[in-house]
Each structure stands twice: as structure tokens, then as C-alpha cells.
Specification:
Two copies of one chain form a homodimer. Chain A is α+β, with helices and mostly antiparallel strands. Helices cover about 30% and strands about 25% of the residues of chain A. The first copy, chain A, is built from twelve helices and 18 strands. In chain A, a hairpin with a 5-residue loop joins strand 10 (about 185-195) and strand 11 (about 200). Chains A and B meet through helix 1, helix 11 and strand 17 of A and helix 1, helix 11 and strand 17 of B.
């Protein structure tokens, strides 16, 4: 056996962060990037448009397994690769559910998995009826294309979504309406499933969002009951198995005020909620993803210390790339692990993150947030 | 401030392992490799002969700091770069002592640092006198070019070294004779010194050699007394400061049966005795080296867990590249961190290593040695 050659479609920070474990393991890792100078440029072996089958097929010839930095590659392209006996992990039949939130809800319903109340919406009348059932407010989502809070809005009447309803064909003919969950916090269950069927879950984490974008992750989720831990690990395994997911799977969940655990979103790739695993876990989500998609046995998901805290570095303006303040942040916070993604500065953009691993949670929180504050504000 | 662009001369495993922290920090990292397909090929921006000033000068134009994968770049080349105001870290005046063991002994003597008895040898008579003083046996070393046990031999008479004595001009006109230390174990003190003068040491480690080559590293060194820990950390700081070392410094030492701590060798770069820091320490030696040579503040050198054990993967034949047995090793040892350097197989070659980090030393030893055994023997 040789180590597999793994190719990732997409040159973002997830492909970038797959590179270090590939180097350590001695796995040949290549990236099909959208453009020169991508975040994953060091591993980029080809630049091209992932919407074009001929581009992706050319890339696929150079590797043994195709995987992903993002979930936007057209299913038709992936199905064509699969028809040519190319290993695509996760396979198109699984990715279909990550690409379409309505299909995801429909599929998960078959397995009685806990979800917010939801409905497929084709007309203003259907939406108004759902809103009425939900006590006057609902969440409306475009089934495809949304991420980081985009393609999602709170609606109290169909008139709040008249622009989407008029153009509903642009969204595949349907919108997805969901219960606006009264939650006490958000959780994420990260796991991996190998092409061989092996499954491993990391500890449940708490994710804190600001304006719909992940801001802070605390691992493990503080004060989670044994019952919740068992339920969330079960949910992840059922989702991974029933949808045929391979590689890393993130299940984002609400912990409702009434105690229900409800599935919010799925991501079939390494995920922001798992960046803490680089230093916080024996096996990082990026190494595990490489192992899982290539059929290597999975590594231990145990924590390296009692706690890990990750804070995202979101762009503050068009200038601050955070590296300006590296010296100050490093000097003040020698335990903080700084990560930047070599992206140009843009307000709100995910440009890096900071992780602190420690046996004391308050210390980890203070150090991670302190280092992030220095990088964001220079103080 | 921008992050510095760092260039390493040499495409071996040390440059390879500098790449992951450069990716995480967002530091632009380039390598001048000896050949295509080097261990550090992913970061190689140029291929050429580091003995040629014009090659190295061309490389130096593309980076802000020059550092090293190995200590073999001619001093004349480095001095020419320095004369052109290029930042070379560690500087040539420090590297001179790493390149010449006799000069190192002479320099360290000025600071009363503890060393085996030693003598500069120019003639057979001088060598026989030294051997007689040492009770009939000594270690003889070529001052330059030796590593991993090469250029070192045990001598009981000048006739054991007649080939070296006849060709003594090839070794700069002198050999280095040293006391054959009766040691209970070997130790290594890893540290880093920044271009700003900041200094940080990792915990003292025990190194176990087989046939002169590092086989196992245990961190921290078991049962080291407070006095020894204080002494070894002091030694490292005095060496780093007095020789003007920047970047990572490894001081290899003997713990003599009579209790003396004696300096054996120095390495002015990340070192095999510090590979455990990748997973075992908050800041790895490779990240710290990048920080130190570029003037960024140093990171914490605290352990991630109570113990770390590293086992080298030395080539067994011309075929086994270890990746053949990855699946078995990963399945049996899910806590083991496997590293391979993408080198072709050769008996005795350093081709990879395994690290296990744990709060239980016996567990770490068993897992690391177990995983290495699978990789070496397939069982």
C-alpha cells in the first residue's frame, strides 16, 4: 500500500489547514484552487473553475481521492466523476443533502431525528399559515447557497419575503420555513466517518454566534448533561450513516429552552466548530478528514487537555490583516495559537482564528479572547 | 508590520516540518532545496547548490530572513550575505561553532562550561599522551563534517587513527580528542533565542541512541533532579548567549556516572531531540524557530501533557517506506502521531518518527514503540 494522493476542490482556509497533517503523515495533497494566491496556494496544483467538468476531471486524474474545501461543486460534475469510477468523498448522494437544506430536512425526517418544526414553502399563503402556526414568527431559508447567515431571514409575514417568493424559481421552486427556536445556546457535534464505515466523534462543543457567524467555540460544551452528550453523539452517527457521509461531518444544533436538542445545519467537511481540534485534540479534524476520505483508520478524538477555546478573527476593515499585531499578541499571550489564512482584509471575513488549550476554562477563555482582541484592535 | 518572509537553506525533514507552523501563522516560508523531490518540496521555491554564493544570494532576495535546515552552508557564503546586510539567523559567527567541534570546545572553555576533558590533536604523540591521561581510551573526532556518529571513533592508540593523522590537513590541521565519558544516560536541552535576545527553554529530555543515532526521546527526562534541571537550563542559556545563537539550539549532554553533566554536541537548528514538541508542547520547536529567527516573541514551551515519547523511524532496507504499514499502525495505535518525511528508503536513514503524548509515561512508551514496531516490521 502507498499513502493515497488526496485532492481537495477549493482553495480556502479548510484546504489550507488540511496541508499540515498531509505534510506530517507524508500524504500527497493537492488543491484545485479558484484563483492564484488562494488561502491554500502552497498546495494548489491547479487553478480553475470547479463548475466545469473538464477542469475537475483533469484535476481528478492527478489524485486517488477527491474531497472538498466547500460544498458548492455542482452535483452533476461529481456524478460524472463517480460514473468514471473516481472516488469522491463525501459522495454526491451525501453532498446533495448539504447543498439543499430542504432535502436535508426531508431526509432527516425519515430517521425521526429531532429538528425544529419546518415546512416546504411554495406560496405566500403557505408561508403565512406556517407563521401563524408558529405564533407569528418563523425563519425562512433559501434551500441552496446560504452560509454564515446569508440566505436566512426572520419573517413575521409573507410580505417580509415577497422578493424571494416572486423569484422562487431561482431557489428551485421552494423555500424552507422553520420554527424560530427559543434556544439557550448553540451546540455542534463534530464527527468523522471513514469510507470503511468507521465512525468517531469529538466532544460536543458550544458555539457562540455573532450576527449569524461563528465567533467563539468552547470545547467541550460546558455543563452538558450525560443525556445530551449521548443524544448528540447518536444524532451525528445516525446522520453520517443514513446520509452516507464520509469525512468530517459537523451537525450544528440548538439547545432549546425547553430542553430539546434540535438539528440546525449540516456541514460535510471540516468545520469552523472544529478548528480547536488542531491543538485541542489528539487527532485534528483536518488529519481525520484525510484519514477518513482515504480509508485510513481514524485517530483518537480525545482532548489534549481539559478545555479548548477558539475565537474567530473576523475582518474589521479593508486593511487590518491581523499580522500587524502579531508581535503584541504573541508577547502578551504566549500560550495562544495564532492562525491566519493569508486572505486580504475585508470586514466580516473569516481571516484567522486563535486557540488556547488549557486545563482551566476561565484561563483559556481569557487568553483566547485577549489574544483575539489584540489582533483585532492592536491593544 | 508584515509577517516576515523566511527562507530555509536545505530541503530536509527539518525544513519540511517548519512548513506546518508557517502555514498556521500565515508566514511566507520558502526553501532552497538541494534537488527536486526533496523532503521539503512543497515549500521549495528554488533548487540549487548552497555552496555557491550566487545561488544562495538569488534565494536571499526573495525572503527577509535566511535560516537553515542543516549547518553545512560554507561560512564564506554566509559572511558574504551578511556583508550585504541580509539577515542570516543564526549568524555566521555562531554557526562557526556548530561547524567546527574544536572551535566549539575552545569557545565553551572560555565560559567554564562543563565538558568532557578534551585536547586539540595535531600529532600521533599528542594523541597517545591524551589517551594515556584518559586511562587508555579516548574519543577522537574530526572537527568538521561529522553527524549521527560519523566522524567519531573510539581510539586506544594513535595507530587507531593513523588514516586521519596522515590526512590531518583534510580536517583543518587538527583533530579533537575527548574523554570517553562513563555516562548513565544522554540528555538534551532544547531552547530558543530570538534575534531580540529573548530566551526560552523546553523541558530537559532523555535521548537514547542506537549505533550513534537518536532512537528514542523521553520528555521530560525521567527522574531528573531540580539541580540538574537548573544546571542544564543555565548551560543552554549561557551557550546561546555567549555564542550569539539565534533560533533553536540543542545542547546534547552526558549525565556521567559520577553525576557530572557534560556538554557533548551543539546543534543550531531544530533538532531530532525536539520533534516531540510538535504535539507535546504548546509551541513546537519548528514554530519557535520561525518566531525566533524573525524577531517575533517566543511562545510558551510548556508541555501539553505530563509526558511525550518520540521514536525515530530509521530505514530498514531499500524498500520499506513505512507507509505500507500505516493502516495497521493507525488501527492498533489511534493515539500515535505518525510522521514520514517522504524520503526514499535506505537502511539507517531517518525517514520519519512517531510521537505519543500522554499523562502516563508507560502508556506513552508502549504506544510509541508499538506503533514504530508496526511501521518497521509490519506487525
Amino acid at each position: 500500500m502507498k499513502t493515497p494522493r488526496i485532492g481537495a476542490i477549493g482553495g480556502g482556509q479548510l484546504a489550507r489547514m488540511m496541508t499540515p497533517p498531509a505534510i506530517h503523515l507524508g500524504i500527497e495533497f493537492k488543491v484545485l484552487a479558484e484563483s492564484e494566491g488562494s488561502s491554500a496556494a502552497m498546495a494548489a496544483s491547479q487553478v480553475g473553475d470547479y463548475n466545469q467538468l473538464e477542469v475537475v476531471a483533469e484535476f481528478a486524474k492527478t489524485v486517488d481521492v477527491i474531497t472538498f474545501d466547500h460544498e458548492h461543486v455542482p452535483l452533476s460534475v461529481l456524478q460524472a466523476l463517480e460514473a468514471a469510477s473516481i472516488s469522491v468523498q463525501p459522495p454526491s448522494r451525501a453532498l446533495a443533502f448539504a447543498q439543499n437544506k430542504l432535502h436535508m430536512r426531508q431526509k432527516l425526517s425519515e430517521f425521526n431525528l429531532p429538528m425544529p418544526a419546518w415546512a416546504e414553502i411554495k406560496t405566500a399563503q403557505q408561508l403565512d399559515e406556517f407563521i401563524a402556526e408558529q405564533g407569528g414568527v418563523a425563519i425562512l431559508k433559501t434551500p441552496i447557497g446560504g452560509y454564515d447567515g446569508k440566505g436566512v431571514r426572520v419573517v413575521r409575514s409573507s410580505s417580509d419575503a415577497s422578493d424571494w417568493l416572486i423569484n422562487i424559481d431561482d431557489f428551485g421552486g421552494s423555500l424552507l420555513a422553520e420554527e424560530k427556536v427559543d434556544f439557550v445556546r448553540e451546540l455542534a457535534q463534530l464527527s468523522a466517518r471513514s469510507v470503511s464505515g468507521e465512525f468517531a466523534a469529538w466532544p460536543l462543543v458550544e458555539t457562540q454566534q455573532v450576527d449569524g457567524v461563528c465567533a467563539v467555540v468552547i470545547a467541550p460544551a460546558p455543563s452538558a448533561s450525560e443525556a445530551v452528550l449521548a443524544q448528540t453523539a447518536d444524532i451525528a452517527e445516525i446522520v453520517a450513516t443514513s446520509l452516507g457521509v464520509t469525512g468530517v461531518l459537523a451537525v450544528e444544533m440548538f439547545e432549546a429552552r425547553d430542553g430539546r436538542i434540535l438539528i440546525n445545519e449540516l456541514a460535510m467537511r471540516p468545520h469552523n466548530s472544529g478548528h480547536f481540534t488542531i491543538e485541542g485534540s489528539i487527532t485534528s479534524q483536518f488529519e481525520q478528514h484525510l484519514r477518513a476520505v482515504s480509508g485510513l483508520p481514524l485517530g483518537s478524538t480525545a482532548m489534549q487537555a481539559d478545555h479548548a477555546v477558539m475565537v474567530n478573527l473576523l475582518g474589521v476593515d479593508e486593511k487590518n490583516t491581523f499580522v500587524e499585531h502579531f508581535g503584541t499578541a504573541m508577547a502578551k499571550h504566549p500560550v495562544a495559537k495564532l492562525h491566519t489564512y493569508a486572505k486580504s482584509a475585508r470586514k466580516g471575513r473569516k481571516m484567522g482564528h486563535v486557540t488556547v488549550v488549557a486545563d482551566d476554562l476561565d484561563f483559556a477563555l481569557a487568553q483566547a479572547k485577549g489574544a483575539a482582541a489584540v489582533l483585532l484592535q492592536g491593544i
